[in-house]
Amino acid sequence: MKITRTVKYNLIRLFRLKSGPHEVASGVTIGFIPSWLPTFGFGPVLSIGMARLVKANTVSALVGGVMGTFIWPLLFFLNYQVGSFLLDRNTKVNELDEVGYIDAIEHAYTGIVSSHSSGFIFLTGATCNIVISSILIYIIVYVMFKTNRVRILNKIR
């Protein structure tokens, strides 16, 4: 119940922003990017910093960063799967239950040198996922804000 209330509160905050659709969509998109990588819990902070660098809305970046915090095991699993598909290699991670934060950190930051390592597979998948998800998130949020902002805000309340 508390998670639903928190999500609802953040959505109301997001849809009440005075910024235009481009700034809000850019903020959510930039804010979600660190969620694809092991950031030691600093993902939302990185989201705000990155949003300031590109002059996007920082509140929407925080919302984007927090959204990814709840689903990081799925995101890391997708990194492994996409990376192994693109590189045509097998990975040690075949199920969502096998995704460990510590293992992902180790793979991402120590296995960059070898193109056969789990880290290279993880980072290849993360790069591809960041590009695709950024395009999709931007388009979805931009269209939502441009066309349905008031209607969505009234439904959330």
Mean of all residue-level pLDDT scores: 80
Largest sheet geometry: none
CA-based shape: elongated
The Rg value, from CA coordinates, equals: 17 Å
Task: Give the low-confidence spans.
Answer: none
The total count of helices amounts to 7
Terminal-residue CA separation = 16 Å
In terms of DSSP E residues, the strand content is under 5%
Taken together, the total number of domains comes to 1
**In percent, how helical is the residue content?**
over 70%
Work out the number of β strands. Answer: 0
SS class: mainly alpha
SSE order, as H and E? HHHHHHH
How would you portray this structure in words?
InterPro entries: DUF2062. This is DUF2062 domain-containing protein. The chain crosses the membrane at residues 24-46, 58-78, 120-145. It comes from Solibacillus faecavium. It holds the Pfam family DUF2062. The chain has 157 residues and is mainly α. The protein has one domain (2-156). It is built from 7 helices and no strands. It has helices spanning 2-15, 21-32, 43-53, 58-70, 72-87, 101-110, 118-156. α1 (2-15) crosses α7 and α3 (43-53) runs antiparallel to α4 (58-70). The longest helix is centred in the C-terminal third of the chain and has 39 residues, at 118-156. The radius of gyration is 17 Å and the shape is elongated. The two termini are 16 Å apart. The mean pLDDT is 80.
